[in-house]
Amino acid sequence: METFPAAGPVKGEIVGKETPEKKEAMLRVVEDMNHELTDVMQEYRPEHERMLWGVGLSGNGFKKVYVDPSLDRQVSMYIPAEDLVVPYGASSLQSAERVTHVMRKTENELKRLQYAGFYRELDLGSPDNTLDEIEKKIAEKLGFRATTDDRFKVLEMHVHLDLEGFEHEEDGEPTGIALPYVVTIEKSNNQILAIRRNWEEDDKTHQKRQHFVHYGYIPGFGFYNFGLIHLIGAFAKSGTSILRQLVDAGSLSNLPGGFKTRGLRVKGDDTPIAPGEFRDVDVPSGAMRDNIMPLPYKEPSQTLMALLNQIVEEGRRFASSGDLKASDMSSQSPVGTTLAILERTLKVMSAIQARIHYSMKQEFKLLKKIIADYAPEDYSYQPTSGKKTARRSDYEMVNIIPVSDPNAATMSQKVVQYQAALQLSQTAPQLYNLPYLHRQMLEVIGIKNLEKLVPLPEDMKPTDPVTENVNSLKSKPLKAFIGQDHQAHIQIHLAAMNDPRIRQIIGQNPQAPMMFQAMQSHITEHVGLEYMRQMQMSMGINIPYSDDDDENSHLTPDQEMQIARLAIPAAQNILQQNQTAVAAQQAQQAAQDPVIQMQMKELQLKAQEIDIKQKKMQIDAAKGADQIEVEKMRITAQKEIAGMQIGAKAKIEKESLDAKQQLEGMRLGQQIGQGKEQLNQKRQAQKLQIMADLAKMQKKKDSK
């Protein structure tokens, strides 16, 4: 069930960078491949189950992928290990120099292939009805009686041959290197039915085409692997022997045999005595117990029972298929503990599952090549959802891999793993893609229509901003795409968020904060994509961008450095443009708002009042400066007058002293009187002069 679920065993993987076209092509290819494997190739599932059973038992199973001319389509048939012969010492099918497929075909099947041109038309006579020793032994082990086989035994050999006229030439000269061919021979009469090249026609290196896939259970020491018959065959044989002994002991102890005297007669002694039946007995003499002696059969031995249990347990441990005792586990056990027990119990089975996954991947690769070769070059009509036919170019963009998980062998193991992931996501939900995690969990459980239950952003298509607003009110996921008009989306989303009626109605919803947060995140996504568009236009280059963590969208160090250098002037230019645009927008809004206009007028009036006050203060300051200057001049004049007065007084005192001295010296003569009169006249003249100077200074002061 893990390798072939009901929906189909195939899933796709995109080659290179993921694009919407590649994703649609992958869906078409996966649907086409699953349709082929489940509906068209009706033999695939039975052959696959036979192969898995053969792998578990014998350790080896082979699949042959080819185009059947009689069915006119591709087939994948199971080949038992005894029907595929390889040289001793070969390590793999790819490196084997010869691979022989032993086929058994009826006379009618060979005639149909001859009529289709696949085999040469020749008389093959009658088939050889003998069976070889391997076939007889297998029939004996399967419980059949080996008889004759009325089918032809055809040997299809994939070999390397150096055929004359078909040499591998290099520089116009044959190299003598054998090339891969497929030679088909009928074994009984050694007639060659067909010889075909086994390389692609346009392959210059002549690489061998592979048609077989080897499935293995546990690797062996050579080409063939080990199966359960090798690993626990001895345990099974010993357990069967002990089980038979226990059954025989129980049968003999329940219906024992023994000896009786010759004269003892029992009525109907040839038939066993039924439960609750009493029969007549003729005893010759003595008691009946003296005439009968049962053989000492023992009850089933407890020692043998313990040994049987030990052998079975050892066999299970060796094959790593022990029973998981879920009843012994506590329901409160941590998920990690449960997962560790599952991993330990299913370690070998998980390894086997990984090997089967790898082999199935090789098988699907061969099937994909055949289906792609026969796929149409173009669609006959425009493909729509639900169309199952893919064109050849679709297969070139997709890798086909099995839907099984090589890391988990059972559904329970997967469920426990995802439960551990869900518990971790609860500790840091911002680090996880929770919708994708829940969707994978539902896929493991087997729930259908996952895209409707848990929609992912990858499943969404670009839509108009009005529909996005409606989806936001419905709590549906939103996603922005690169080619959208982000400015228009942002304006329409903001208008819806700021609508008072919407806010009033939605505000009553308990999920309103989450809805507005989702819309805000969506607007932020549009803002980021719009910023990238502006940067690309300013830089003149396209910046690789992908919503997913795709390796092909990552930049090399040189590319990152080049973009970083070009982004510096572009970022500054966008910053200036945005600042200018925001300022102009604010000014325009202010000019249109009446409240803002009234506030602007009030500010203008206040500015005028402040201007008048400033001018008045300037005038007052000028007046104060003039008063200070006049006061300074007055003080200076007073200082000058005081100095002149002091000088005049000193001069007068000195002249008076001189006159006194002169008068005292002229006491004896007439000249004393004359000198005194002259001195008085001189003093008077000086006083007049001083008064005149003072008058001038007072006049000058008054004029100022």
Describe this entry's structure for a reader.
Helix 19 (594-665) runs antiparallel to helix 20 (671-703). The chain has 704 residues and is of the alpha+beta class. It starts with 9 loop residues before the first strand and ends with a helix. Helices cover 53% and strands 11% of the residues. The chain has helices spanning 20-40, 44-58, 107-115, 133-141, 228-231, 233-254, 302-319, 335-345, 347-374, 392-396, 411-427, 434-445, 450-453, 465-473, 486-497, 500-506, 512-539, 557-592, 594-665, 671-703; strands at residues 10-14, 60-68, 73-79, 84-85, 99-105, 152-161, 169-170, 173-174, 179-186, 191-197, 212-216, 258-260, 265-266, 281-282, 292-294, 398-402. The protein is built from 20 helices and 16 strands. The strands form six sheets. A five-stranded antiparallel sheet has the order 4-5-6-9-10. A three-stranded antiparallel sheet has the order 3-2-11.
Give a brief rundown of this model.
This protein is of the alpha+beta class. It contains 20 helices and 16 strands.
